[in-house]
Write a structure and sequence with these properties.
Distance between the termini: 51 Å
Number of helices: 16
Shape: globular
Length: 481
């Protein structure tokens, strides 16, 4: 995704330091910026910045991941008509919130004599505009950082579940894999190779993930990241091709899903759209930041089109049998088994980029408190503990669709929908903000809040229900034996 610059946040007294890293910092160097405030997009307009096309590519990569593959199931939960319409509406709202964040960042950076701001800093300085919130402004930044940590660690949990489910399916069907890519709705082929629970696959992947995050500088992963991007793109093309070629007619799928499943749709959809964390880093690294808004609109239009098209086509192709990831429905032929393995490789490399954010927020303040002799050892130990923690969470909830929906509902709803409209209110409340704008912002935040509450409740309820059923089935099998 990007090329490296080390983020130095050592010496900070808080786990939520002033330097708010993102995966963009890991693989995309920041150009030097002037120290004086420059409102007319001059603050980082140096030749060393990223171009229009480079920024567009980074924006696409920052929004396209495992969430895209889960959207066919999301459309199933909402319905064949309501699902795509809801995705379009959510895309419009998400892009609008990204635009609000950029607008508030520009206003506050000029007001505070700062060349650029992070998401957390924008919230902090926005709260300082309100007298009764000023003394608590630091909590605003720390809250944003907390949700960034939850979101990124949630992504890492999803990656554990995604890899285990897909690799498990490839292994189990190894002897049944053929050159014939015929239609297979359920993909429940006869298991000819004895396999074990997906949670044991997660434990097998754990050492590899730990070694991956021990990489001293993510710039060393840049070549692998480029390869990962290419193979994931090729895999998506093949998935699109198979889904389009195997739509069955007539299409007798429900136009509107069940109301109780719609919160699951919301969680999965907002998980997919949660690219707001890369917006300010990308804008701050552009050679000509004044062109960022066109990049944002173009990039997110492409993303929204991909989301709606794959979600709809995937559901039309596999219908009620669609899995938590569309890759789990692909036939057991060599071509599409290779697609699964290639996408798994891309997700494996991306894990290090997602892990970079919480690691650089949480670890340096702790390492700063130990002697220089033990710095490296403590750094590696904490990295290993964080990876083990994400693996443990994935083992506790080994349901890909529910993990995606839960992460989206809990954290992505705050970062993508709730915070940006509220930030505009506190940023411009003394400058004649229109009552209609205020009402619109409150409505968007309420939508995010309702989605958070209902999505979290339904996801947790479904997790408990599925675990209970699994335990009952295991107990019954044991009693029969």
């Amino acid at each position: 995704m990007m090329a490296s610059s080390d983020v130095d946040i050592r010496g900070e007294g808080s786990l939520f330091s002033d330097q708010n890293p993102s995966e963009m910092d890991a693989l995309c160097p920041s150009p030097p910026g002037p120290s004086r405030p420059q409102r007319n997009y001059e603050r980082i307009g140096e030749r060393t910045g990223t171009s229009f096309c480079q920024t567009l590519i980074h924006l696409l990569k920052g929004n396209i991941g495992t969430g895209l593959l889960g959207l066919p199931l999301a459309v199933k939960n909402a319905g064949l008509v309501l699902g795509p319409v809801s995705l379009l509406c959510m895309g419009v709202i998400a892009v609008h919130c990204m635009r609000l964040l950029v607008k508030c960042s520009h206003h506050l950076s000029g007001k505070m004599n700062r060349p650029s701001l992070t998401y957390g800093e924008a919230v902090q300085y926005g709260m300082e505009n309100v007298s009764w919130l000023r003394r608590h402004s630091q909590w605003g930044k720390q809250t944003v950082n907390l949700f960034l940590i939850i979101t990124q660690l949630g992504f890492c949990c999803v990656y554990f579940v995604f890899l285990s489910d897909n690799i498990k399916q490839v292994v189990e069907a190894a002897n049944a894999t053929t050159f014939s890519c015929h239609m297979n709705y359920t993909n429940q082929t006869q298991v000819l190779v004895h396999s074990f629970d997906s949670r044991l696959y997660m434990l097998c992947f754990l050492p590899a993930f730990i070694l991956l995050v021990f990489t001293p500088n993510l710039k060393y992963l840049a070549p692998l990241s480029l390869v990962a991007n290419l193979v994931m793109t090729a895999s998506l093309v093949l998935i699109y091709f198979y889904s389009l070629m195997n739509i069955t007619y007539p299409i007798n799928l429900p136009k509107v899903g069940r109301a109780k499943d719609y919160p699951l749709f919301f969680g999965t959809a907002i998980f997919a759209f949660e690219g707001i964390g890369v917006v300010l880093p990308l804008e701050n690294k552009m050679q000509r930041p004044q062109t960022f808004i066109p990049v944002l609109y173009l990039g997110m239009s492409i993303v929204t089109f991909l989301y709606i098209s794959l979600g709809t086509i995937g559901y039309m192709c596999f219908g009620e049998h669609i899995g938590g990831s569309i890759t789990l429905n692909l036939p057991n032929c060599w071509t599409y088994q290779a697609v699964k393995l290639l996408y798994c490789f891309g997700i494996f490399i991306t894990f290090a980029l997602q892990f970079y954010v919480p690691a650089e927020i949480l670890i340096p303040p702790v390492v700063a408190r130990v002697s220089e002799r033990w710095e490296r050892a403590v750094d590696l130990l904490l990295r290993a503990i964080l990876v083990i923690f994400t693996c443990a969470l994935a083992i506790l909830i080994p349901e890909l669709d529910l993990v995606i929906s839960l992460v989206g509902s809990v954290s992505s709803s705050f970062l993508a929908l709730i915070f940006p409209p509220l930030l505009q209110i506190v940023t411009f409340h003394t400058e004649g903000l229109s009552p209609l704008v205020t009402i619109k912002n409150i409505i968007i935040s309420l939508i995010g809040l309702v989605g958070f509450l209902t999505g979290t409740y339904v996801a947790v309820e479904q997790i408990i229900t599925r675990n209970t059923l699994k335990h009952e089935e295991t107990f019954s099998t044991y009693m029969v034996q």
